[in-house]
Amino acid sequence: MTAPPGRLRLLVLRALGLGDLLAAVPALRGIRRAFPRHRVVLAIPAALGEAALVTGAVDEILPAEAPKRAVPALDRWTGPPPDLAIDLHGNGPESRDALAALAPRRLLAHAQPDPALPQPPVWRPDQHERERWCDFLAAYGIAADPADLRLPPPGPPSPAPGAVVVHPGAESASRRWPAERFAGLVRRLRTAGHQVVLTGGPGEDALVLDVAERAGLPERNVVRGGLPFGELSSLVARAALVVSGDTGLAHLAVAHATPSVTLFGPVSPHLWGPPRAGRHIALWKPGPPGDPHGDTPDPQLLRIDTDEATDAALSLLRPVRRPVR
What we know:
Helices cover 30% and strands 14% of the residues. The protein is of the alpha/beta class. The chain has 2 domains: 130 residues, Glycogen Phosphorylase B (Rossmann fold), CATH 3.40.50; 152 residues, 3-Layer(aba) Sandwich (Rossmann fold), CATH 3.40.50.2000. The strands form 2 sheets. Strands 8-7-6-9-10-11 form a 6-stranded parallel sheet, with helices on both faces. It has a 5-stranded parallel sheet with strand order 3-2-1-4-5, with helices on both faces. The radius of gyration is 20 Å and the shape is elongated.
């Protein structure tokens, strides 16, 4: 983790999931533009390294993660302290302290705003995640555009070009729509003539196979064990549509401007949803906020039925002449 001679190092902490990384792309690109001579190092789980580098805003990865989205230790940092450290992880003292432990020359954090700032950053719980971090940087004179979220077209060919990608998994049960409803959606999409591919991440094989069996979907249309990021990115970028819960795949569809239907429950799409422009539909039933990391499906998520989700999906797809077998 030693920078080339004479090149300053800038460390950003965002050690969360894929959706969190993609929501932070506008802020990361603002940082990249503001500090073109720095080597930008992003502290993030190692599994997301390829995705982070694809953004074009990051030069290097510092592997860092902790269970249950906690703040990780940054003990893999070597060499002199960072010239600048930026906390994009959260607004608490824990993430600020993890960066402060490296003794950076300058530290930007919600939990420790510079007292000399004319208008220090304000943490607003009702603000969209993309806008939140762009506004945070703006308080320090760093320009970032919340709409600057597109990823470049992936190089690998898609394993299923033109398919409808249905992703029933999610990190927590509170954001997982029931398997039988996903199966009903898949059945109706196939009856309407659309090719459907089911995807799942590591540890979700049982769920994906359950949905496939309920829907009568051949195993050749099932992706088990998760795809490497490059292949997953290509699958999503060249899909006809992505249907998923509020998870990283929904953010990847937005990043590639692929039409999408996202099923929201405990968290409002006003905080984490797709931009209003574009062919993205966010289904959500207004109500009190739930626990995005809960152990049971959120009641508001369960208010979305199969017919509503299927109708939304079909509204974004071109009609086809004959069913897919």
